[in-house]
Design goal:
The complex is a heterodimer of chains A (about 280) and B (about 140). Chain A is mainly α and about 280 residues long. Chain A has one domain. In chain B, helix 1 links the parallel strand 1 and strand 2. Chain B is of the alpha/beta class and about 140 residues long. The longest helix of chain B has 25 residues. Chain B contains 4 helices and 7 strands, in the order E-H-E-E-E-H-E-H-E-E-H. The interface between A and B is medium-sized, with 32 and 26 residues.
């Protein structure tokens, strides 16, 4: 029963929180550029407007892919917030990403092809570090279940500082923030038009946007996990880290995919794997 | 209730403009005018856009491009001709390759005068375009 209530609350409240977060993101970005910026509710206006627009469908299968992307993103979040298996959340969020990429490929536009390829590369780049995070949490708490990880007596960051730093690096890729936003153009940079979302319009684009809100809340939840026994500290840290991400977004130029790939694997190896190796030696 | 007034996304295309109007369109994005405070985003993607902003006259080479962009935009959509050239051909009208204003090719909803059109005038034009957009949305629903 508790699981059911938590899932329903998550499904209903997350779009509100995620949309507000996106609105805050846009206002803060504007202020960083000495602009006034839009209203904080702007993301909601955008999505509601997209629902009123005509939906141009290039390929019928794209609807299924977009729906599956949204469905599995919500599934990931529900699994996470009811305290399920962290490995399963990692895999289902990957599956959601794969559906998004398939959606991009299915539209047969050269720009969305390029965007999908870049999205695939960023997925390959961030996946090792995400898996290392799950492994690290298992090594500390001896459980893959999120409810056990939260119930651990000390903040996990004491044991996993390296993994945390590596995960922060990867978070920029996951949130599609500036140095690593190769797959989807945001506002001003348009060298591949809109990348993976080029051919989506109307309702499909609105669903993609909502899926991103769910995804962002899930990602901030994973940051919370590092500070779990101290909930206030955890919430504060995840908000601070979101602010840091906005700052990085506004101060960095987009990099090439080669650099994205090399740097993220390098960080995963240096910060994540070394941290886990030290833990392993300590435990044995 | 329609939300077009709250979040108009636009695409900007440069016909055979002298770039005077283009600079003024881009000036709207700068901190001085900051059109994002009205929720306006320069998308650069016809499939995401509600408003088609054209600067410069139509010529033989770009008429295909303009038609292509126009037909790719999902309904409801609004076309705004920015500057004298886009409105009537302006100083370029007598050119051997010029068809004339944008309305020779596609239906234009709002004409923004000026050579070059000032950013204030462009913002005014977009605001005017929003009313047209809203009416088009209402009419579409009535037909259903």
């Amino acid at each position: 029963m508790r699981i059911l209530i938590t899932s329903i609350l998550f499904i209903l409240l997350t779009p509100i929180a995620g949309g507000l977060l996106a609105g805050v993101d846009r206002v803060i970005s504007a202020r960083m550029q000495k602009r006034v910026g839009p209203s904080i509710l702007q993301p909601f206006y955008d999505v509601l407007k997209l629902f009123q627009k005509e939906n141009v469908v290039v390929n019928v299968s794209q609807n299924l892919y977009v729906f599956s992307f949204l469905f599995f993103t919500i599934f990931t979040g529900v699994l996470f917030f009811i305290g399920g298996d962290i490995l399963l959340t990692v895999f289902s969020s990957t599956l959601a990403g794969i559906f998004f990429i398939l959606g991009g490929y299915s539209t047969h536009s050269p720009y969305s092809f390029l965007g999908s390829e870049r999205e695939l590369i960023s997925m390959v780049s961030d996946e090792p570090m995400v898996i290392l995070m799950a492994i690290g949490m298992y090594m500390v708490t001896q459980s893959f279940l999120i409810r056990d990880i939260i119930a651990f007596n000390q903040p996990i960051i004491y044991y996993l500082p390296g993994v945390f730093i590596g995960y922060l690096f990867v978070l920029t890729i996951k949130m599609k923030k500036s140095p690593f936003d190769l797959s989807m153009s945001h506002h001003a940079h348009q060298e591949i038009v809109s990348g993976i979302t080029t051919e989506f319009s109307g309702k499909s684009l609105a669903l993609i946007e909502i899926a991103h809100w769910y995804e962002n809340i899930f990602l901030l939840g994973t940051v919370f996990l590092f500070f779990a026994p101290k909930p206030i500290l955890g919430v504060m840290m995840s908000l601070i880290i979101y602010l840091v991400e906005i700052f990085i977004d506004n101060t960095n130029a987009r990099v090439k995919w080669q650099w994205l790939f090399k740097s993220s694997w390098f960080v995963a190896l240096c910060a994540g794997a070394v941290n886990i190796f030290v833990l392993f030696i300590n435990q044995s | 209730m329609s939300f077009f007034k709250k979040s108009p996304w636009l695409i900007h295309y440069d016909g055979s403009s002298c770039n005077g109007c283009d600079i003024e369109v881009l000036a709207c994005l700068t901190p001085v005018y900051d059109i994002e405070r009205f929720g306006i985003i320069n998308t650069g993607n016809p499939k995401h856009a509600d408003i088609f902003l054209i600067t410069g006259a139509v010529n033989e080479q770009n008429k295909e491009v303009i038609l292509n962009i126009y037909s790719q935009m999902p309904d409801p959509k609004v076309v705004i001709a920015v500057g004298a050239c886009a409105s009537s051909g302006g100083i370029c009208a007598e050119g051997y390759n010029i068809l004339g204003g944008v309305d020779k090719l596609i239906p234009v909803d709002v004409y923004v005068p000026g050579c070059a059109a000032r950013p204030e005038a462009i913002i005014d034009g977009v605001v005017k375009g929003l009313e047209v957009l809203e009416n088009k949305y209402r009419n579409k629903n009535k037909k259903k």
